[in-house]
Amino acid sequence: MTATEARRSESTQAPSPVLTFEDVVLGFEGVTALNDVSFTVNPGELFAVIGPNGAGKTSIFNVLSGVYRPQRGTVRFGGEDLLGRRPHAIARLGIARTFQNIELFSNLTVLDNLMLGRHHHHPYGVLAAFAWLGKAQRNERANRRAVEEIVDFLELAQWRRLPVGLLPYGVQKRVELGRALASEPKLLLLDEPVAGMNLEETEDMARFILDIRDELGLPMVMVEHDMGLVMDLADRIMVIDFGKPIRTGTPKEVATDPDVIRAYLGEEHKVDRS
């Protein structure tokens, strides 16, 4: 057994998951987006969710973020029930998210965009900020040190004072990842982190995702269409189709599952079980 396989085996046996998503049902005016979806995420694990377009992947993220409230099910994070909480309250619990479409302030610099990720770490009011004394000054300096660490971690130093709107697309995606990290999350949600990237940008992002897992020990849930990336990076994968899970397992288990192959390739590619 290789070191990677050993780590994946250990992660699947983790006794106390950081996230429990259980029997979740979500529907909109008669259309079922999620149908009894269940999964767990273990400490330090990279858990991927894959499926055809419209399968319900983004709906899972929207439930986790508090954008959608399901009709049935349980979602618990670190012992806290997430259902019924507003997005900002869930973010304060330690869940950060990136978006498929870049959601940055294009006229602000890289540093300023990263500082926005620190908004939960400003325990003072407007008057203290204007006065720039005592606690406000110390906290601002601490936040800037934290942001500079992210700049170094994601190799953004050469662009740190440039407006993000002037940066290449792949670098902008990296800045968005950095903004999520700036909040010091306990769980990171990655919504198609390499969407629209060229090969070089994809390889860079894959390296940073691995660094986040292996060096920071941060558990992640990733939705991604790049199957090569998913198979290379994920510890476990859940495949959903039409809002219902059809397989959860290691990359090898998922890649050889006939139901998964049919969901992606169609009935004419049915696998011979004999």
Automatic annotation (TrEMBL):
One annotated GO molecular function: ATP hydrolysis activity
Chain ranges of the ABC transporter domain: 19-267
Protein name: Branched-chain amino acid transport system ATP-binding protein
Pfam family, one: BCA_ABC_TP_C
SUPFAM superfamilies in alphabetical order: P-loop containing nucleoside triphosphate hydrolases (SSF52540)
Keyword list, A-Z: ATP-binding, Nucleotide-binding, Transport
GO cellular component, one term: plasma membrane
Species this protein is from: Kribbella steppae
CDD domains linked to this entry: ABC_Mj1267_LivG_branched
